[in-house]
Design brief:
10 helices, alpha/beta, binds 5,10-Methenyltetrahydrofolate, amino-acid biosynthesis, 2 domains, about 40% helix, EC 1.5.1.5, 6-stranded parallel beta sheet, single chain, methenyltetrahydrofolate cyclohydrolase activity, 3-stranded parallel beta sheet, methylenetetrahydrofolate dehydrogenase (NADP+) activity, one-carbon metabolism
């Protein structure tokens, strides 16, 4: 058996088209949705990512402004800039690209962003809202994974979902979103005793560890849905996920590729959160 591919690029394109429609409707009412992106320092990967985010935004009619600051910027200056953006009625979403330079307290920076503009969904208030099922902003990566499951019409109710990884931006929120859909959820991590025993029972596996070959074909139940959140480089320097794609695709029912899977969906969900933020200010 060979798994069907869940094409993140194709789905992201559909999501962007939907966002473009909502943007147009807001613009017709005189509101220009606006995302402010802050990049501190010269990390080459971050430079590429933020350029993508700005280009995606402009493609869907959202305004995006990129603010670049030197790595030596003082934390106080950054906090002041965020507070000014919080007050700016013309700005609907604020994204501070991570990682920040080491001399900055990431937690403090994120907590300074107004929860109403926290389109990354990283603020404690956003995490709390997700936990208790209140309106807020969901982190873009797990939100994108959920969209990918929806795109194949997958009904999570009563299914066993195994999340590998317990980070605050992917594993934990992913588990809560799956639970919100009535899945039975197991969270596995580096201290899990017998990962294979867990994944073999899974109807859905989300791999979000940040290490190659965390999930191999012998660990997957035939027909399972496999979502690969990993972003790693292989020995040839090629982008690869956490899943041994070539092996796992022989047993899984559905699988997401890397690249072209969760990555493009993460970017698309940032646009969804931004248009949502703009709509909420005018509801
Ligand atoms: N405040 C903040 N929010 C973030 O969402 C955030 C961040 N900081 N810091 C860095 C990480 C990383 N991240 C990616 C999103 C999409 C792709 C993506 O679209 N990847 C393409 C491939 C890109 C390539 O070829 O390198 C793909 O998987 O097909 C990659 C990486 C968001 N991040």
């Amino acid at each position: 058996m060979t798994a069907s591919l869940i094409d993140g690029n194709a789905l992201a394109k559909r999501v962007r088209a939907e966002v473009a429609g909502r943007t147009e409707a807001l613009r017709a009412r005189g509101i220009q949705p606006h995302l402010a992106v802050i990049l501190v320092g010269e990390d080459p990967a971050s430079q590429v990512y933020v350029k993508h985010k700005v280009a995606d935004s402009e493609q869907t009619g959202l305004k995006a402004t990129l603010e670049r600051y030197p790595a030596a910027m003082q934390e106080g200056e950054l906090l002041a800039r965020i507070r000014a953006l919080n007050e700016d009625k013309g700005v609907h979403g604020i994204l501070v690209q991570l990682p920040l330079p080491k001399h900055m307290d990431t937690h403090k920076v994120i907590e300074t962003i107004s929860p109403a503009k926290d389109v990354d969904g990283f603020h404690v208030a956003s995490a709390g809202a997700l936990m208790v099922g209140q309106p807020g902003f969901w982190p873009c990566t797990p939100y994108g994974c959920l969209k990918m499951l929806d795109s194949i019409g997958y009904d999570l109710k009563g299914k066993h979902a195994v999340v590998i990884g317990r980070s605050n931006i992917v594993g934990k929120p992913m588990a809560l979103m799956l639970l919100g859909r009535d899945a039975t959820v197991t969270i596995c991590h580096s201290r899990t005793m017998d990962l294979k025993a867990m994944t073999l029972q899974a109807d859905v596996v989300v791999a979000a560890v940040g290490r190659r070959n965390v999930l191999t074909r012998d660990m997957v139940k035939p027909g399972a849905v496999v979502i690969d959140v990993g972003m790693n480089r292989n020995d040839e320097g090629k982008l690869c996920g956490d899943v041994d794609f070539e092996g796992v695709k022989e047993v899984a029912g559905w699988i997401t590729p890397v690249p072209g899977g969760v990555g493009p969906m993460t970017r698309a969900m940032l646009l969804v959160n931004t248009i949502e933020a703009a709509e909420r200010t005018s509801a």
